[in-house]
Write a structure and sequence with these properties.
This protein has helices at residues 17-28, 60-70, 74-82, 174-177, 179-189, 199-209; strands at 2-6, 35-39, 52-55, 86-90, 100-103, 106-109, 117-132, 135-148, 160-162, 165-168. The protein is an alpha/beta fold. It has one domain: Rossmann fold, CATH 3.40.50.880. The protein is globular.
Length: 212
Amino acid sequence: MKIAHLYYDIMNLYGDSGNVKLLCKMLEDQGIEITLIKLSINDKLNFDDYDFVYIGSGTYTHQKLALNHLFSYQKDIKNYIEQNKFFLCTGNAMDLFGQKIIDQQKNIECLNIFPYISKKVPRFVKEVNYTFNDLNIIGFLNQDVIIENNKQFWFDQEGVRENNFFATYVTGPLLVRNIFLAKWLIKQLVPNYQDIEYEILEKAYQQKNRVN
């Protein structure tokens, strides 16, 4: 299985690379040979080669660099998502796939894969709890946008989900702090998934959420 970590060097705030490290480890534990491909703004992207694509969060400047690079692959990305291949975005990587970012009356055109709009607001920082499959998603937000006109939420009124495209503003990193969510994601990816206990991570999740 080939996993593409896009913009590993510039879109990696809040330890987001931990999501890819955990994903690779859990897939290897399923007996799957993993090829991790790290790509950035000077690399050519070939989405036909990837089974799973991940983009983390970055500064506003780095977000624009990533966006400018992705414009050349707009059609390829749309086809990739329509073919039900897997794509995960955390933090402000989610903004790249909407119609535009509205910043002080200035519109920054985005990939227009989905109909939502990212609108700049005063920054807010907080720990959050959302719900997914009757369990709590925990994480961290350091956010200066809200999205409008979103049609497909991933969690309860947060994030985006379309086919196997998943995006959320939650960082922390997301999968490390929510091991059950990582397991759920891999079950979608691997038809013959065999459940494995990850004792330290699962106990940390249970303690945080007061689950007995």
